[in-house]
Amino acid sequence: MQEPNGGYRISIRSLLLRPDEKRALDLTIDSETAAGYGLGFAELPHITGSLENRAGVLMLNYHLHCVPALECDRCLSPVEMPVDEDFVHVVVTEAATEQNELEYLLAPDAMLDLAETAMTDLRLAMPTKTLCRPDCKGLCPVCGKNRNDGECSCGEGDITLVFE
Q1: Inside any domain, residue 118
Q2: Domain match, 145 and 88 both
Q3: Residue 64 backbone phi and psi in degrees, to 5
Q4: Are residues 128 and 141 in the same domain?
Q5: Is 51 in the same domain as 123?
Q6: Rounded Cα gap, residues 17 and 70, in angstroms
Q7: What is the pLDDT of residues 112-163, one digit of tens each?
Q8: What is the residue range of 52's domain?
Q9: What would the DSSP string read from start to end of 39-84?
């Protein structure tokens, strides 16, 4: 399904014209493309699924598996967070209103960018806060030691920070 040049844009024109037509999807997004969306991976995004014309409505159904390489928001330790998610989209070539653009996956030139779609879905599926563990103690605000590795010796372990 991936184009020889590494692109992930596929034409949906023939699917739009043939009711009950179905095309299988099975591809891995390469590290260079994934990095272009600002994410690193321990295991690259892999998409399996289908594009199907159901009575004139084009449906994109796919499963996304990957392991993003993230950083804990409290202590900056590396975190690998496996993602296994299913996504369903109705694909249209034009939207009647701005509200429809939010409800449907828009492919105005009858070309669908699978990498962009998957990476956008991934970003929306990921938690807003990444922690190495639920009880992460974070870094000492004075010396920067990772408090998960033990208390620091700077004597500032009891400092309470006040933000105004």
Answers
A1: yes
A2: no
A3: -115, 125
A4: no
A5: yes
A6: 42
A7: 999 999 999 999 999 899 999 999 999 998 888 999 998 888 765 555 554 5
A8: 9-132
A9: -EEEEEEEEEEEEEEETTEEEEEEEEEEEEEEE-TTT--EEE--EE
